[in-house]
């Protein structure tokens, strides 16, 4: 069975497991199912609370495991969700789950937030401006700059790839990489690897922007004029930051075995490598926030939801909860 609870019910002093708020995402997608399944698989190390429509989640839990007991904070939908069929009237309820999870994390009622995928178009068509989870969390927490990092692999030894720029047209990337923005990005990565992952001296490898890292200026001057000066400033602080390296040869075991994070200059420079290695088990992490937030590495998969229960893989959600717990346990150490 499931029970609907308030935020404060998560405060049992004897509970040593990290307290994780899980937003269930687009109700017509696979988010609710993978959230329920993942919570059942992670109960030994995580104290999870689901944020979503209680009626939908209770019904799902009964189908997945009749004996399931889940903690649910009800965020009622305007209309019952139909798997695979978007309904713009439910967009506001999806945002309510995010707002309540963020508020709980800021108030230290939970240790981290894990998000299932949302459908941006539904939220926007409901008349609510929304560009994505990352931007929304930054806005709601008053964070000027955040960094997207995806991780895959086993626990604390995972491969991590951070991005200097995210969802930009390729033609706009060079102008977006300035000395100030790149320095701040590296500072955020360094800080969070120390404080959220417990890595005392993070080793960060930085990719160049151009082919062959510019080839001495022949293929572009961004490495000379922007990236190298920023790395030199970071190195002067005693940070273990190196590069810029040609991206086509950087992602080799002989380099990655000595790295805690690779910083790529743009989305499709770094993420294809990570997703090839761990798609469906990867984790999206937002660095730079005052709270811990992780997410899955895939979308709403409306077609899988429409195909019926049992077609969705919850592996990425399980890993997102696991990484959130690691970060919560390491937080501030």
Describe this structure in words.
- This protein has 333 residues and is α/β, with parallel strands linked by helices.
- It has two domains: 1-143 and 289-333, Isopropylmalate Dehydrogenase (3-Layer(aba) Sandwich); 144-288, Isopropylmalate Dehydrogenase (3-Layer(aba) Sandwich), CATH 3.40.718.
- Helices cover 39% and strands 17% of the residues.
- It has helices at residues 31-41, 54-64, 91-106, 120-125, 133-140, 173-176, 179-195, 222-236, 247-250, 253-256, 267-278, 302-307, 315-330, and strands spanning 2-4, 19-23, 47-52, 70-74, 112-115, 147-152, 159-163, 203-207, 240-245, 261-264, 283-287, 293-296.
- It has a twelve-stranded mixed beta sheet, sandwiched between helices.
- β2 (19-23), α1 and β3 (47-52) form a beta-alpha-beta unit.
- α1 (31-41) packs across α13 and α7 packs across α8.
């Amino acid at each position: 069975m499931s029970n609907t609870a308030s935020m404060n019910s998560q405060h049992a002093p004897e509970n040593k497991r990290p307290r994780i708020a899980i937003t269930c995402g687009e109700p017509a997608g696979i988010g609710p199912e993978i959230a329920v399944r993942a919570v059942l698989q992670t109960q030994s190390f995580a104290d999870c609370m689901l944020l979503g429509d209680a009626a939908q989640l209770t019904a799902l839990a009964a189908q997945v495991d009749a004996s399931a007991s889940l903690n649910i904070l009800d965020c009622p939908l305007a209309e019952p969700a139909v798997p695979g069929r978007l309904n713009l009237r439910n967009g506001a309820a999806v945002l309510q789950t995010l707002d309540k999870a963020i508020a709980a994390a800021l108030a230290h009622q939970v240790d981290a937030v894990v998000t299932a995928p949302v459908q941006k178009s539904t939220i926007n068509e409901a008349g609510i401006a929304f560009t994505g989870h990352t931007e929304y969390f930054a806005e709601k927490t008053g964070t000027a700059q955040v960094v997207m990092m995806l991780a895959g692999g086993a626990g604390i030894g995972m491969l991590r790839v951070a991005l200097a720029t995210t969802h930009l047209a390729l033609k706009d990337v060079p102008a977006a990489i300035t000395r100030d923005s790149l320095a701040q990005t590296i500072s955020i990565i360094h800080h969070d690897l120390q404080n959220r992952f417990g890595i005392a001296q993070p080793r960060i490898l930085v990719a160049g922007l151009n082919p062959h890292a510019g080839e001495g200026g022949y293929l572009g001057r961004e490495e000379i004029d922007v990236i190298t000066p920023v790395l030199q400033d970071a190195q002067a602080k005693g940070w273990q930051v190196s590069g810029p390296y040609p991206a086509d040869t950087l992602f080799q075991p002989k380099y990655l075995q000595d790295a805690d994070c690779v910083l790529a200059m743009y989305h499709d420079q770094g993420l294809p490598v990570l997703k090839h290695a761990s798609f469906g088990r990867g984790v999206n992490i937002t660095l730079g926030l005052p709270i811990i937030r992780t997410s899955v590495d895939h979308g709403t998969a409306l077609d899988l939801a429409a195909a019926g229960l049992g077609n969705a893989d919850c592996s990425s959600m399980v890993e997102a909860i696991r990484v959130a717990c690691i970060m919560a346990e390491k937080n501030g150490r």
